[in-house]
Amino acid sequence: MSNVDADRRVESDWWAHPIPPNVDFGEGFYCETAQVFRFMKTKAAHALRFGNHVSVYAGCSFALGLNGSAVVGDFTLLNGALVMADERIEIGSHCLISWNVGIADSDFHPLEPAQRLIDAQAVAPFYKDRPPRPKLETRPVKICDNVWIGMNAIVLKGVTIGENSVVAAGAVVTKSVPANCVVAGNPAAVVKTFQ
Questions:
Q1: Number of separate domains in the chain
Q2: For 168, phi and psi rounded to 5 degrees?
Q3: Is there a domain that residue 99 lies in?
Q4: In angstroms, how far is CA 15 from the centroid of its own chain?
Q5: Which CATH number belongs to the domain containing residue 144 in this structure?
Q6: Are residues 48 and 90 in the same domain?
Q7: pTM of the full structure
Q8: Residue 129: which domain range?
């Protein structure tokens, strides 16, 4: 059972478009609105995969670039999260991801000032002499099983968050997090461990 019909339309959805064909979902999938997929650029098959009994609430956004992919495990809840993948983001099972959480596998713009100038021109939709975008570094993100990420937290490229861990509200996670702990702050640091 799911609230998505055979035509991939979300029941009572105000958004006019169905769930894209390259989004796979398991039994008991709940999606509040298909608008959460509006920023998916990839056309690759099976680019975004949801396990069984996943809940995706309004306010979420899955921004997958042309080569991006993501997977979400069973019984995971996403409520207002922003998942930005130019390469790969993996979210485990039984995870709770709160409002305004940002998860990104890239910086999405160059750090070097001269390259940023080129990038600003490359992303200007109506600039007639648009250059190609500079190459950007990506590193996959992995969130293991039973992780809770509090509201307004940010998880940056190359990070792995170990199983059973908690990321406190507002934390900025720049380095991998061990299993069975709580991290908080900017940059996030371990403030508690579980036995």
A1: 2
A2: -65, 155
A3: yes
A4: 20
A5: 2.160.10.10
A6: yes
A7: 0.94
A8: 113-138
Q: Which two tokens stand for residue 85?
A: 């993948």
For 90-143, the pLDDT digits (tens) are 999 999 999 999 999 999 999 999 999 999 999 999 999 999 999 999 999 999
- 29, 117: one domain: no
Active-site residue, 109 included: yes
Beta strands in the chain (DSSP E): 23-25, 30-31, 48-50, 55-57, 61-64, 69-72, 77-79, 82-85, 88-91, 96-97, 102-104, 141-143, 148-149, 154-155, 160-161, 166-167, 172-173, 181-184, 189-193
Six token digits for residue 178: 């061990």
Residue 10 lies in a domain: no
Task: Give residue 97's identity as a one-letter amino acid code.
Answer: I
Tell me, what's the pLDDT at 195? 80
With respect to residue 46, please indicate whether it lies within any of the assigned structural domains: yes
- 165 and 122 in one domain? no
- Catalytic residue of the set 46, 53, 94, 109: 109
Burial class of residue 134 in the structure, from the number of CB atoms within 10 Å of its CB (0-12 exposed, 13-18 middle, 19+ buried): middle
* Type of residue at 15: W
CB 147 within 8 A of CB 171: no
Which of residues 138, 154, 180 is at a domain's end?
138
Q: What percentage of the chain has pLDDT greater than the value 90?
A: 98
Q: How many angstroms separate the Cα of 112 from the Cα of each of 62, 118, 119, 133, 157?
A: 27, 10, 10, 13, 17
